[in-house]
Amino acid sequence: MAYKPVAEEKSRLALDRRARIVELAAQNGSVRVQELSEMFRVSEVTIRNDLDLLTKQGLLVRDRGGAVANTRSSLFVAFAQRANQYQDEKRRIGQAAARLVKPGETVIMDAGTTVIQMAKSLNHDLMLTVITNALNVASEVGTLPNAHVILLGGSLIRETVSTVGPQAERDLHNVIAQKTFLGAHSIDREWGPTDTSIEVAHVKRVMAQVAREVILLADSSKWDRIAFARTVPWSGVHVMITDSNLPEEAQKTVKGLGIDLIVV
Length: 264
Prior knowledge:
Layout (H helix, E strand, L loop, with lengths): L3 H25 L1 E3 H8 L3 H13 L3 E4 L2 E4 L4 H10 L3 H12 L7 E4 L3 H9 L6 E5 L2 H7 L5 E5 L3 E3 L4 E3 L1 H8 L3 E6 L3 E3 L3 E4 L2 H12 L1 E7 L11 E2 L8 E4 L5 H9 L3 E4 L1
Parallel strand pairs: 4-5, 4-9, 5-6, 9-12, 12-14, 14-15
Antiparallel strand pairs: 1-3, 2-3, 7-8, 10-11, 11-13
């Protein structure tokens, strides 16, 4: 039992590494074993095993000395890899978020692996308008018979399967929403939600500005991590939904900021 947390951490690191490998292949067209070994500070044997597994999953195509992107699936592969992490927690958070949507509301739904769980949990008969920059969220909500979906324009970010840029921000400035549901790459106790992309952070900020209520969806693994781009300050968050693994100290911190905390 004492070794279980270590094993879980190794498994999480392996999933993160493989997701990043797929992203790099999609961005650059190919990846090399030696370069990946140096980048992730693991053996070349470990990288070869990663590439073999990703090839079996149809995410890459092996070649001599590395692998190339599978162009037929590269758009969604990195997202799919991240979605496999903390599945139960994300599902519970998504279900709790979906229950906050009321009939007739206009809501903004961000991109992310937790937000897509929310999309899957929305009441099938609910009448609502969903504004989103996420292609997969738009596709999922579009199956609901009484949902009106508005997909924001802009440039495509493959890693999140979403649009960003001036056009997406202009589209958002033309609407008023009752609620915005934001995903999070990482959360710092001082700076709040952060992201690795300035473009993504800009869109999230505008999403928050045009809604009356901002609801942050984040599993506990995002806590005490920080990226270089700030998205929404703590003062702009009204509700945070997370899982029961969030430490008690962190829960007190969030509540102390005047944010309603929903733990599932």
